[in-house]
């Protein structure tokens, strides 16, 4: 039985469609006995700090070179790493804001990626991700519909997949979308959206 990490990032609490979709994914995995433990992380309740000069400096230090005070600065990033490292399955949800992922989720990604921890450089200069063998489900909610946007305007799935594969070694990402939430009379059937799961 596997352990899942459920990350939510919508500002709209219980009204959130992205949260509704990711919760449906979690419930389906639990009902099929694929997941036994779910760790919930609502980023609106524990927002990631912005990267600043001090934190970036800490990210690039060798683990042994960090003293007790400096470890405090890394507490959030260490928590992000530990939660994802202990999970077999990660279910991420995000609203679309201005064509991108929520700033909270981007902030979480910025706390996650660390050289020597989530990826390392090989002797030939190439990179290898360290968090292999994990499965990601991505739930995206948008007011509009991808089919109506100009070609090349998909930025959330492509960005998250690129970051995970380049800087974490996570390549197994399945995306589900709840679209058209801003349209009048919208009625969402989460089970139908995730029927291929
Ligand atoms: C600040 C803001 C920006 C948004 N930008 C977009 C956008 O660029 N494209 C889009 O289709 N919907 C956009 N929307 C609509 C949201 O994606 C939509 O309400 C979605 O359901 C939000 O996810 P949630 O229900 O999980 O909160 C935006 C909404 C807000 C509040």
Structure characterization notes:
This protein is α/β, with parallel strands linked by helices and about 200 residues long. It has one domain (about 1-195): 3-Layer(aba) Sandwich (Rossmann fold). About 35% of the residues lie in helices and about 20% in strands. It is built from seven helices and seven strands. The strands form two sheets. Strands 2-1-3-6-7 form a five-stranded parallel beta sheet, with helices on both faces. A two-stranded antiparallel ribbon has the order 4-5. Strand 1 (about 1-10), helix 1 (about 15-30) and strand 2 form a beta-alpha-beta unit. The protein is globular, with a radius of gyration of 17 Å. The mean pLDDT is about 95. Bound molecules: flavin mononucleotide (FMN). Flavin mononucleotide binds near residues 10, 16, 97 and 142.
